[in-house]
Amino acid sequence: MATDYVERSTTLMHKFEAAELLPHAIRLLSAGEPVELERLAAAAGRPLEDVDAALDEQSSAERDDDGRLVGLVITLRPTPHRLTVDGRTLYAWCATDTLVVPVILGKPGIVESTCPQTGQPVRIELTPDAVERLEPPQAVMSAVRPTGKLADVRVDTCSHGHFFSSAAASADWARKHPDGYVHPVEDAFRLDREVITRLGWEARR
């Protein structure tokens, strides 16, 4: 099951339009400010027109009125999943994203979310290498990993990624998503960290 999750997650990222831009976008957005496409193009080593086209292809990409990037995996706009890094508050499209951002940035972070079933807060303190503290300790993470082409990654995948306060709290979600995954948070972090390593997106240290 774990191997299947890693393989499907890695394959999914290769299908994601603008995938080559993701680690660069995350690092730039982590500063907490909108990102000019020229800066993203320079960081990715891609022509500006290619970056613009790739973002247009990914319908989930968020831009402000000036055309600057404000959301791609992490976002400056509030979501149910909050991530604090370097004292700055960021948000993420799904639970998985909050776990992998510290790996990509090479910095510790604090994740705060809410169980959609019980309303109980979930708080995670993590480093790029491990979950240091988890409240409640029995919290789990849900995920789906479609095998087809992604029309909209945020709708097709991210909308299903939650933190639940326990496996019991995730039972209804699991029944409705028989092809989905429910992992204890520590296991989810370990598996998603392996995905980021396979993609070569982890921070150089």
Topology:
Blueprint: H1 2-15, H2 22-29, H3 37-44, H4 48-57, E1 62-63, E2 69-72, E3 74-75, E4 81-85, E5 88-92, H5 95-105, E6 109-114, E7 121-126, E8 131-135, E9 140-143, H6 153-156, E10 163-164, H7 171-176, E11 181-184, H8 185-199
Antiparallel strand pairs: 1-2, 2-3, 3-5, 4-5, 4-6, 6-7, 7-8, 9-10, 9-11
Helix pairs in contact: 1-8, 3-4, 5-8
CATH names the topology as Beta-Lactamase
The value of Rg in angstroms is 16 Å
* Main beta-sheet annotation: 8 strands, antiparallel
The SS-based structural class is alpha+beta
Q: What is the N-to-C succession of helices and strands?
A: HHHHEEEEEHEEEEHEHEH
Mean pLDDT: 94
The second-level CATH architecture is 2-Layer Sandwich
Number of domains: 1
What is the CATH top level name? Answer: Alpha Beta
The number of helical runs is 8
Oligomer: single chain
Percentage of helical residues?
Answer: 25-40%
Which stretches are low in confidence, meaning pLDDT under 50 for 5 or more residues running? none
Ends apart, CA distance between termini? 30 Å
